[in-house]
């Protein structure tokens, strides 16, 4: 759903990139410091733009003197099939924000990477960067990050993400062919999502309740997914293999089955799980 009412690329002429340049011109380049972009927007539908978009955005930023900042907190360290989602960008970002996978979630740590020209601006007393960080440079956190990065590189997890991610995407595309409730499949590597719709032509979305019912059944079937609006997002471990993806697809397929018998079975499972949770509590 393009906010610029475009329906296809490249016919759209990258209206989104043009909008950035038009806004810079309208506000005045001297009032703009940077443009922040998330290579794959996780909480906004797992949407990624075409490669040309990032190239054009980088060129626009450099043309008007803006810094290009890439938020790789979610996509960084192999999630999308390369070590960083911005690996192939040209021009490269001036700043990059990292976190989450940098310690595999074992310790709260984040990092900001900058290019040499940006770093050198802070190397004189007149331009020193004064900032207090209570736990900055935490030795345990840094040790965990180094160990995590070594494993990611030595076990070639970005490459595994690319291979298994392609297999996952093929599986989701197969589900889309069988399940008309899937209006779109999108994502990169092991960061994929499906959008649930009542009608593919009108793109009328599932209601929150309808989406949540499917979400519950998928989770109770043994697959943890995240939910936002009418979308279900799959972000399996970077160590996933094809056998795990096959099991994921079986669970997803059952959760998406809207036939009457399937709906009755689903309600029975929900009641059983609810009863079991009461007993455990």
What does this structure look like?
The chain is globular. The longest helix has 22 residues, at 157-178. It has helices at residues 15-27, 51-64, 116-120, 139-154, 157-178, 208-220, 242-256, 260-280; strands spanning 34-37, 40-41, 47-48, 67-71, 95-98, 111-114, 182-188, 191-199, 204-205, 226-228, 231-234. It has two domains: 15-154, Type I PLP-dependent aspartate aminotransferase-like (Major domain) (Aspartate Aminotransferase, domain 2, 3-Layer(aba) Sandwich), CATH 3.40.640; 159-280, Aspartate Aminotransferase, domain 1. With 281 residues, it is α+β, with helices and mostly antiparallel strands. It has eight helices and eleven strands. The model has no long low-confidence stretch (mean pLDDT 91).
* End-to-end C-alpha gap: 43 Å
Question: How many runs of DSSP E, i.e. beta strands?
Answer: 11
How would a textbook summarize the main sheet? Answer: 5 strands, antiparallel
CATH fold name of the largest domain, please?
A: Aspartate Aminotransferase, domain 2
Mean pLDDT: 91
What amount of the residues lies in strands? 15-25%
* Poorly predicted regions: none
The CATH homologous superfamily of the largest domain = Type I PLP-dependent aspartate aminotransferase-like (Major domain)
Q: Can you lay out the helices and strands and say which pair or pack?
A:
Blueprint: H1 15-27, E1 34-37, E2 40-41, E3 47-48, H2 51-64, E4 67-71, E5 95-98, E6 111-114, H3 116-120, H4 139-154, H5 157-178, E7 182-188, E8 191-199, E9 204-205, H6 208-220, E10 226-228, E11 231-234, H7 242-256, H8 260-280
Parallel strand pairs: 1-4, 4-5
Antiparallel strand pairs: 2-3, 5-6, 7-8, 8-9, 8-11, 10-11
